[in-house]
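Hey, sorry to bother you again with one of my protein questions. I've been staring at a protein lately and its backbone has me curious. I owe you a coffee for this, so here goes:
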Amino acid sequence: MRISPLLQASLILSLPFWSLFVNAQSSLPPHLERDIVTLSADASTTVVPDMALIQLAIERQGSDPANLTQEVNQIMNQALAQAKSSTGIEAQTSSFTTYPRYDNKGQRNGWIVRAELILKSKDFGVLGTLAGKLSNQLQIIGNSFEVSRSLRLQQEASLQEQAIRAFQQKAESATKQLGYRSWQLRELTIGQQQGELNRPMPRGPMLMKAASAEAAPMNLEAGNTSLNLVVNGSIVMQR
């Protein structure tokens, strides 16, 4: 017995696919609980991540943490203003830390103030150019790629339909192979598993010295990544 079109439509439309849960267990007669089979199926597709992220940092060292904080704040505010004036750029600060500096004898000899900035954009060219300009004051400490929500949503319906169809086919096959006449859906969960392409650069100490004002744009190119959707559920087989 196949899942009716009405039930399938409700599975697709009623809730977000990653949190969907259908439970029909309570409506089953007790004697049918013995004829339960657990199944899983999946669907996947390959996409190119359409969002790039670059992480930058500014760090200053000295004896007066107040002056260091003021200098770091000034540079960070200038970077934020430049980022916000660039079309299609999302910018946000990610951390701001102050910690002591020690010499080789373990004695404190100053302070370190560090702040980080994350830039995100679908326009790799604009983002790379901005990162190059900002690298005269900030250091590039990491970059990665991700699939945007809009691109993920474009793939949802197709993946969900494929996964449910694969689950139905497995249910039909198992029912026939085990000598049963039909099957009834007991429960179904649909969850997303997404393999992100992530190419972070090393973090920790500053990776680059302050660049010149004519710094070249940062070249950004994303590879492929897979979007996977897994269906897990159980059926009650009937003779």
